Amino acid sequence: MQDEMEEIIIEFITEAEESLDKIEPLFVELERKGEDKDMLNDIFRSMHTIKGAAGFLGFQLIVDVAHASENIMKKVRDGEIAMSRLLMDVLLRSVDMLRLLLRHLKEKDGVTENVSPLVKDLGNALAAAVSKTPETGHHEKTAGEAKLPESAAPVIEKPEIPVMKEVDLTQAHAANGEQHTVAASAPPKQKETLTAALSGEHNQAPEKTAPANGAVKPDTQPQATDDGEPKQEPKQNEMIQSAKDNIQKAQNLRVDVHRIDKVMDLAGEVVLVRNRLLNISNYFDFKYTGDPMTEVLMETVSFLDRVTSDMQLAVMKMRMQPIQKVLSKFPRLVRDISASVKKDVDLQIFGEGTEVDKSVIEHIGDPMTHILRNSIDHGLESSEERIAKGKPQQGKIVINTYQKGNQIVIEIADDGKGMDVNKLKSKAVEKGLMTEDEAQKMSDEAAVDIIFMPGFSTKEVATELSGRGVGMDVVKTNISLLNGYVEVSTVKDVGTTFKICIPLTLAIIQALMVEVDGAKYAIPLSPIEETLKVSRKEIDNITGQSVIVVRDKICPLFELNDLLNTGTTGSSNEDYKYLIVISMGDKRFCIAVDKLLGQEEVVIKTLAGLDTTSSNVLGATITGDGKVVFILDVAGMSRNLLGITKG
Amino acid sequence: MDPSAVGEQILQLVSFTLEKEEYAVDILKVQEINRITEITKVPNAPDYVEGVINLRGKVIPVIHLRKKFGLYHKDSDDSSRIIIMDINGITYGIIVDSVSEVLRIPAGTVEPAPPMAATMSSRFIQGIAKLENRLIILIDIDKLIGEAV
Description:
The structure holds two protein chains of two kinds. Chain A is of the alpha+beta class. Chain A has 24 helices and 18 strands. Chain A folds into five domains: 1-136, Four Helix Bundle (Hemerythrin (Met), subunit A); 137-254, no CATH class; 257-318; 322-503, 2-Layer Sandwich (Heat Shock Protein 90), CATH 3.30.565; 508-642, CATH 2.40.50.180. Chain A has a six-stranded mixed β-sheet. A five-stranded mixed β-sheet of chain A has the order 2-4-5-7-6, with helices on one face. In chain A, strands 16-8-9-18-17 form a five-stranded mixed β-sheet. The relative contact order of chain A is 0.06. The longest helix of chain B is centred in the last third of the chain and has 8 residues, at 141-148. Chain B has a single domain (3-143), classed as CATH 2.40.50.180. In chain B, strand 6 (81-87) and strand 7 form a beta hairpin. Chain B is globular and about 45 Å long. The A-B interface holds A 269, 272, 519, 563-566, 605-612, 614-617, 620, 622, 626-630 and B 38, 40-45, 49, 51-54, 57-61, 87, 90-92, 145, 149.
């Protein structure tokens, strides 16, 4: 029973968090658009669900906060008071508080927050707003409710459904002593709201009412006989919740992510076995050509090959989620940041539907937040400055997400003042991050990357938002952890664009297999521009650094065994060398290897228990013959070899 | 057999040799014992990290205990073994010269390590077990491997 309770609470937390994620951007949009009935209803309903569920489970603090903000929402929705910045601020604060309370619940840290000041503020804000508008009577309110004419129709048609739910809810309220609050606020209102909300749902999916009804009925039956048993209350709540969910998203299934990861792991194993089988069958095909059984074997294996590829793709898709999950928190963030620096910012988001791997969703939020902060604080000018420059008063930030090949591209562009390359350089010299001489030699493109140096900041005084010299280097590290890279392009007085490129998935990659001194290595295919076979004579040497001209451009060249410290010299006597041209953002370099073995799909295995920070590998894989092969970290190499922090 | 009935705790250990010394670790740490398989070298790794092996689809690091203890190098031979251990939640392979036996000894026979010169290795010694005519060094494998890799 304890477990059951635990599960119900976890379920509640997840759903409440999802609701908050959903309504937060709505708040911000609402503020911009002004009145929007649908949006208000949406917010109101989510808030109400949270309150109801929390009430059944006895989380009084959550009930208090949700109730107070719900009161405001209700008056706004009914048109009694107008939305104002003050109201919005206090409502958003209540969202924050709800999040905090949920986190305490989740972590079971037993910390209790004092919510009474917030509840008081909510009450005060409401009172202040109400006093501004002429007081309307109770009856007029109900008239406002009846403005939804459709809501009445289904209730009449299928009266038993809403009524029954209503009864359920009130019962549960009573059982939990929650009725006190409800009764105090205004019981008739409460009922109306429920009816409206429920019938609203029926409107959305009238054809689904019948199964939903069926789902509710049998579950309420045993409840009646079992009455008085405390554990039934939350269960009953869950039933109502799930019945509602059935209506809204009958096509979705909530699965524990560990299960999916397990399937992912197994799929990886199958891929490895497939690769081994392919090797073996090729051997037999070679040895017993023409044997009918060999042909059957080849056929079977090639079928397995196809199915495995499909399965892999399907499993990968299971972990994909729309990037909207991350993007939805940005309108609020931008609103808060821009308010604190007193800038007027318009945030536009495109491509929220782009799907990325779950691990990407988890790690991309922080770097994007840093970039946005940076853009608002440093990038955009103040309104006066903008007007003086002849730009529109409102600054603009555009987030654009799209898929390009097997990469996801996220662009964050502002139309601010751009970066002053010379200022960047002189600051870096001032902070002792580089010498005057180095700064002089540095190209403008390279200089832009100064912002990613640890400890760099152009702000004279650290503000609350930025200026402490941490942030942009975190961006770079986080993104390279995802096996991706970030590029910056800036034009003075036109704006700055950050472009983040990350691979679609992190578990399986296409790789080029190479050989050096008899050892095999895998190089991720995505940053490889081309491979070349060159004669030794074409390689030049500039101040100790080998270089080669590739397509009219000078490209630094590194021997792979030097990079990996394999202990051998690598200057094999061959006249020809195989070069792999790597391009990371605007940086290009070549890696010389002994042999190119071909392309393979490899499963990345993490290296637990090994410190790989200096080893230039990002993981390992197991090849068809069961050998362990390291996957090289070209992003890390490019940082180490060409990074400006070198030396 | 029940330790409480005997009135004293019984330690179950797996013993192995390095050079001429006999060592032992808690049997609960040991997952399995394998012959030496193909080991892939790790680029830019400390020298006592022999490489990684494929343990049924899992890639696990392998530590050469001789090198870790600063003993002179000896090539692996037929009696060499890789002891697969779970150390702080991570699976490692440890190369030893040979694996001897499973020991059951009363906890009372284990004495704290004598205050030896402050050599690196002495920090990892849990105690020394005295059996009839041999001394077995108990290794705190969590400290030895967990700290350094």
